[in-house]
Amino acid sequence: MLRGTNLVVVAGLAVTAAWSVLHRTWSGAAQAAVVIAVLLMVVRVLARRDADLRALRRAVARERVLGELGAALITATTRADVHRLAVEAAGALLADIPGARAAVAAPGCTDLGAATDRHGTQLSLTAGGRFFGTLAVSADADLPAEVFPALQALRGQVAPALAGVALTAELSDQALSDPLTGLGNRAMLRERLGAALARARRSGRPAGVLLLDLNGFKQVNDRYGHHVGDELLQAVAARLHECVRAEDVVGRLGGDEFVVITEDLTSARDAVVVAERIVASLDAVIPIGPHRLRTPASVGIALSHSEVTGPDELLRLADAAMYRAKRRGGGGHHLHGVPEAEPALT
């Protein structure tokens, strides 16, 4: 539009000069100058209107971006989903700004991927008094003032979405966790075991369940009180983690019963080795305050096979094997399907 204004000015000066030459009067030149002034006023009005229209289009586009973001955030289920949607929306808001980029950093992350010599701003993502990270926006030059209200509106959508995702995750963890030991509870074990059985069917390599309980745990509760029993269960949970592989799952069914899910076994011996480590670890004395407690474990082992229909059946088989180990006096293990008189692949 400025280039058009210059053309009008040049044309106007040419008209004024021509008028002066042809009419050789200053009055004609004055009339031409008035025409030029009017033309300049019209051009300025048109330029201002054009700028206003462009600003209005940008504002409408930003509102559309924010509306689409709000709809997308409704279906976001993870923090990563929310971060991705926030960055995409910020990029759309800044699409006409040279070198603009956006990033979201989780709490504790200081690397936002922005050069120190760039211009930009950082917006704290907080909701309900909790901090969920930072939205960083930068560009090659100073950000125009008109984008800041849109960025604030974006923050107003993203922060509550992160709070909602965090709350959902926390409630899910509570629903699937044993509050005393921090291990998975019965619901989590059934969920993980179902997935393990599905993978075992696809790979042809069995999954194993080790179900154990503690011999003498009731006597500990009766003699020393439930607070000591609770501390003992927490210590047992820690020892179980030390006995299993990183990929194994440890959970608590309830009371003094625990479960280990182990996958991708080459033979029954793989599961028996884990059981032997558990028996040896829990056969050792566990110090709880001034008390030195010993509650040997009876471990039942069951492996998946074509006739196992689901998690509950495999747990039932492991439970039956555990009671056979318990009948031998505790502090041992038994593999389902192995006759009582034979050692369980030791």
Automatic annotation (TrEMBL):
Residues 205-340 form the GGDEF domain. InterPro entries: DGC-Regulatory_Protein, GGDEF_dom, Nucleotide_cyclase, Rev_trsase/Diguanyl_cyclase. The keyword Calcium does not apply. Pfam families: GGDEF. Keywords: Membrane, Transmembrane, Transmembrane helix. Coiled coil: none annotated. It comes from the Bacteria. The chain crosses the membrane at residues 30-47. SMART domains: GGDEF (SM00267). PANTHER family: DIGUANYLATE CYCLASE DGCT-RELATED. This is Diguanylate cyclase (GGDEF)-like protein. It comes from Paractinoplanes abujensis.
